[in-house]
Hints:
CATH topology of the largest domain: D-amino Acid Aminotransferase, Chain A, domain 2
CATH class of the largest domain: Alpha Beta
Radius of gyration: 21 Å
Bound molecules: pyridoxal-5'-phosphate
Number of domains: 2
Number of strands: 18
Strand content: 25-35%
Distance between the termini: 18 Å
CATH architecture of the largest domain: Alpha-Beta Barrel
Oligomer: single chain
Amino acid sequence: MMIPFDPTTMPRLDAEAVRTSKLSGVPSDHMFISEYAHGEWRKSRIQGYRPIPISPFAIGMQYAQSVFEGMKAYRYHDGRIAIFRIDRHAARFNRSLERMCMPAVPEELFREALVQLVSVDHAWVPEGPDSTLYVRPYMFASEEHVGLQPANEFLFMVLSAPFRPRFHKPIRVKVEREFVRAAPGGVGYAKCAGNYAAAMYPTQLAKEEGFDQLVWTDALTHSRVEESGAMNVMFVIDGALVTPPLSDTILDGVTRESLLILAREAGIRVEERDVTVEELRSGIPGGQVTEAFGAGTAAIVAPIRTISIDGVDYNLPDPQDNHHHSIMLRLKQLLHEIRFGLVEDRHQWMTIVEPRA
Ligand SMILES: Cc1ncc(COP(=O)(O)O)c(C=O)c1O
């Protein structure tokens, strides 16, 4: 499938700035866009990145019928470019879309949109340790309609932006025991726009209290840990890698799954089971809980230094102080080697992208 390409007439690429990773969070020169109407995807094309006209009554704007993904393209040491786990992100995108009454995107269209966009904008994939091109597939209901109903018209787009790593000092998180991110039967497992809007207010309050992030607990009892803002949470407890099991209230993180696979292969004991707030409250001072971290596409792993429970801080050791024994750092390194092409891609997680001349 060759997607029609209409190159931008106003390239904004500052190749030197991208190469040296000075440019971060700036849209790349092109975008993919496809229109859904009358039951089919039409007019798929790659064009210059630019604003698009939207009806003020678009259902996606009024009622948040909108779903997205977040993925990354990497530049290997030999200069080749590869995208991480397209199939897993495509499958999750379609699971989210189904929940939001939105049409599926055929995996081939999803894959080709990504590959051909990154191919066109290959010069936007930065070099340098941990620098990446962030790729954002997303869809929203573009149909103009006054009144609540699922739309029949949608736009599917893929955007991208170079992403420069920020130095990740261990973070301070608050276990949220009042507000709720997701309830059983709800949309927590879907990467739908509304989940993120709904999380902003509690997250903002926590930031004002000096926290970097929230750790959400289950909606009914607030006694079990679920996940963090845009990351799954993982712990090392009695030497095992422990993370809450997937459910309809937790996003099925691609980083989470990748780390679990790598941990099992490395002979690390893995437990997908409930983690209670009480287990953290006693296990951190008791020395059973030795590591805690978030896992997600943006940060890959984010070490947690402090977990605040009901106003009391529980501090974990800095993994850098014990880097020979840190399971988090070991897993991070294993994943890093795959993502940057330093080892053989045994799992076929990487899709190599040929630059378009
Ligand atoms: C709510 C939430 N949980 C977890 C994750 C981590 O998922 P992934 O590893 O696929 O980025 C994300 C980020 O996408 C997220 O938004």
